[in-house]
Amino acid sequence: MDILALNEYLNRAVYGEWMMVVFILVGLYLSLRTNFVQFARLGTALRETLGAIRERFLSFGGQITPFQAAMVAVSATIGTGHIIGMVGAVVLGGPGALLWMWIAYLVGMATKFAEAVLAVHFRRQYSDGSVLGGPMVYIRYGLGSRTAWLAALFALFTAVAAFGIGNLSQAAAVGAALAQEFDVPPAITGLLVALLVGVLLAGGIRMVARFAQMMVPLKLVLFLLAVLPLLLIHLEGLPAALALVVSSALSFQAAAAGAAGAAVSLGLVEILKAGVGRGIFANEAGLGSAAIAHAQAQVDHPVRQGFWGLTEMLLSLMVTTLMALTFIASGLWQSYLGGDRVEAARALFTEHPLGVALLGLLLAVFALGTMVSWGFYGEEGAAYLFGEGIRWPYRLTFATFAFVGPLGGLAALTSVADTLNGLMAIPNLIALLALGGLVGRLVREFFSGMPWQPPQEED
Amino acid sequence: MLSGNLAEFPLSRLLETLMGAARGGALCIEPPGFVGVVYLEGGHPVHAQAGPLQGLEALEFLTGLRSAPFRFDAEQRTQKRSIEPGLSTHRLILHQFEAWKEIDLPDNWQLLLQARPNQGYVQLSPLEASMLARVQGKSLAQALMDGQLSPLEAAQVISKLLRLGLLEARMYPQIQPKHLVVLTLYGGGQGVAAIDVDLFTNWQGLLGEGFVLRVRSKAQEVVLRPESRFNMQGRLGLFERDLRQLRLSRGVVVEVWPEAR
User: Contact B189/A300, CB-based, under 8 Å?
Assistant: First the structure.
């Protein structure tokens, strides 16, 4: 078996249905351990995050504020997958996929919460004020030195995966969008993207955070500007779309659908795969990537940062839901069932008053934000493995790949990186299972007013 | 106008000089924190005042001062009479000076008295025990002007408590209030104000083990028990119940400063 065949096999496994089951089971387990914190404490979470938004630039004395840390994570999470990927889920699984996506999101909220809590609890702080944290750190210090190899694996997967999902794929999306809608040559796009990413990463986490705190509101405003007019155009179809989401959640049959207008029949497995798959991979809950950003937040108690994890999921859920409902309400999904998701998205945006160009701009902005945050994730993974000296070489390499991305090629590397991205979940989910009890204890302590006691550093 | 410092010109000599010259006027003694005045007529004290004390008690208090700026103003007179001029008063004043010499107290009466945890067993009289409880957090001058005992009696008890190590007299610097942002603490706690561990350690170093936090918001001012927590820089953690009672909410900026308990 050659490397590419092995990669394909692994890719199918890590994004396959069994892995989805594992994601959901871990989410349910963490929900139980935290007494369903995502529902029971949702009000507190919103008060602590969006309710305290006026404190967004108020630090607890660390490098970045809890809000900024969350924005780095949101900037990475809300990417092109929230637009094209969401349309793709409906194209593959029909409207019913949305219901399963919601369920996956609700379960995944506990996972993201636990990741943020553990990231803050186990992070390492250095005398210069810098912080290293994320799944590799909570695996290493939470599970003990015998699992150091697992932590190293996670760090390796992150450092390499960042070049795929966080770089080549995104840069290619930016390049394609700008070339298609604005006739910008890919080489120019590549140069600009590489410069931007390089400069931002060179500024360290403070610069990345400052960029993310501007980028996320921009993404949301741009998204609403793109979707709300479309939703208004198809407002009449919205009640029917919602009814369809529920009624076609178990099975779907259409006499004439898809590009060919042929009879289409979707079984529960296909609908589940499309919906749950989007509900898991769109928000990165379980992958552990967002935990790297949350670890940077200086906060008095890990649970307080965990609330940002919940809010992050709600924001992601809002974007994907609005996108899916707009697409379903438009009725276009019937014509594109089983077809091309990019074409379907473009067809939807042709009805927009500002035209398809807005989709191009939206995708470019979404992809840029994701790239910068993922560049930071990858750099943290590399720094964990090879020490601080790797940071500059990593940044330069990352910027170089950002230049190559819009030009195309390197498909094999993108494919391998995509597999490693999926593989990141395995060490992370093992750690979440093992440390679920600790997360539950931290939640109980937080709500009984007990101060946080960081674990003793053994280094 | 005659002026100087009691450290160079002790009060006993000053009064003798004024008596010998049969001067009339007001001898103002102005240590930090309070003002004492002794009014003289024909060289004899006729009225004295120091904080809330008047008459012989005020004079008794002032005779214990070893260092304080003074000035004699011959123009300043009073109609008040709280001291009977005569030989017996003169003898009493001399006796007070002698008694103060036997008492070992710090010269700076602005020092704050603070109870110290004692390692061993110490037997105290009810009077001493009650004094120990009463003087906590007060300045030495305030403790001597307490009113329950005469200044000399109070000085004797405090001197003993200091010698036994049950009390300590410490200089507290002027601590500027910090502006902290309120943060919600969850749970059933009450009466606690959580501050950052570094700030807590800093204030503890200045004020000693037992200190309280005074929190001032727009609406009111309260005293709360301090608690140190990690990563609370710039924040003041208050429990939900306290927040409701104080009509405060998360994100509000309050003034906070420590006070010796």
Answer: no
